[in-house]
Amino acid sequence: MQLERIRKSFDGKDVISDLTLTINDGEFLTLLGPSGCGKTTVLRLIAGLESVDNGHIHLENQDITQVPAEDRHVNTVFQSYALFPHMTVFENVAFGLRMQKTPANEIEPRVTEALRMVQLETFAQRKPHQLSGGQQQRVAIARAVVNKPRLLLLDESLSALDYKLRKQMQNELKALQRKLGITFVFVTHDQEEALTMSDRIVVMRDGKIEQDGTPREIYEEPKNLFVASFIGEINIFDATVIERLDDQRVRACVEGRECVITVNFPVEKGQKLNVLLRPEDLRVDEIHGNTEAEGLIGYIRERNYKGMTLESVVELENGKMVMVSEFFNEDDPDFDHSLDQKMVINWVESWEVVLADEEHK
């Protein structure tokens, strides 16, 4: 599917601005962004539930911009389940097949298979009010995939589920997508969900695409501070260029510490930069007595035990708060740091992401 220079406004305000996007056949693509970024509007435009002001939408080389929703071969699973309360689970899932006049002998095996995929085959004769919210959501997904659409759109479809079921459904949806070979377009504001499920993530802000890439690219190589800050926890250090050493390396003053950083764009002496490091990319050691240590010096202000990891907040000597995540090691006597413990922070050279300082451009 291709969206070409799509524009959509409501009440004179642009919600989508000149958006161009290619959705590859058979991929799991996630539109990710904060509330109001336009991601659900893009989904509704693809589905035909809203009309575009400008631009074109193509599905398999056919211009479907003016094609009504019911003729697009696109199914949508909404945040609200929209099940028929008077019908059984089986009849809800079979509804679309009956509307398409599918032969009667095909309906039962297809519905049973769809319910088996979402682990609800034993609930076929129940009514929606007899199901939990999570079960209703799975019925909605079964109803959407039973028609084998070319494109399946999911609008915040797991948001009502409890944490454990949500994690389970993430894996099941991805496995289901691979099995069916249907293109999935998923809308969420949950970064972890996007990273877990997607082949490709499109990060949106104010109706525009900020970055388009694989989960790993989005997480490890953010293009700007918005993407970096929106996807997971990240530390943003202030830096000033001292000198360029070679094509890749620059000597810089980072939060008062002179060090070498990897910078793959032109810089000038005195230029302000942002050095980005994930909490898990930082290395910390305790400082005891008057020991001299090379690195950023700070003090433990908060500790959060997360099972596999220990997350600490370290206050640098200049007042900046830094998040550090360490894998739990019960054999290390220095691991479970006490509050106010003096620490030194370092990282492996080239693990940092360096961006031009957007405030000082």
TrEMBL record:
Start and end residues of each ABC transporter domain: 1-231
Mitochondrion in keyword set: no
InterPro entries attached to this UniProt entry: AAA+_ATPase, ABC_SmlMolc_Importer, ABC_transporter-like_ATP-bd, ABC_transporter-like_CS, Mo/tungstate-bd_C_term_dom, P-loop_NTPase, PotA-like, PotA_ATP-bd
EC number, as in UniProt: 7.6.2.11
Database matches in CDD domains: ABC_PotA_N
MF GO annotations: ABC-type polyamine transporter activity; ATP binding; hydrolase activity
Key words of the record: ATP-binding, Cell inner membrane, Cell membrane, Hydrolase, Membrane, Nucleotide-binding, Translocase, Transport
GO CC annotation, single: ATP-binding cassette (ABC) transporter complex
The UniProt record lists the keyword Membrane: yes
Stored SUPFAM superfamilies: MOP-like, P-loop containing nucleoside triphosphate hydrolases
Pfam families named among the record's database cross-references: ABC_tran, TOBE_2
Subunit-structure text: The complex is composed of two ATP-binding proteins (PotA), two transmembrane proteins (PotB and PotC) and a solute-binding protein (PotD).
Family, as annotated: Belongs to the ABC transporter superfamily. Spermidine/putrescine importer (TC 3.A.1.11.1) family.
Its biological purpose: Part of the ABC transporter complex PotABCD involved in spermidine/putrescine import. Responsible for energy coupling to the transport system.
The protein's name: Spermidine/putrescine import ATP-binding protein PotA
Organism, scientific name: Enterobacter roggenkampii
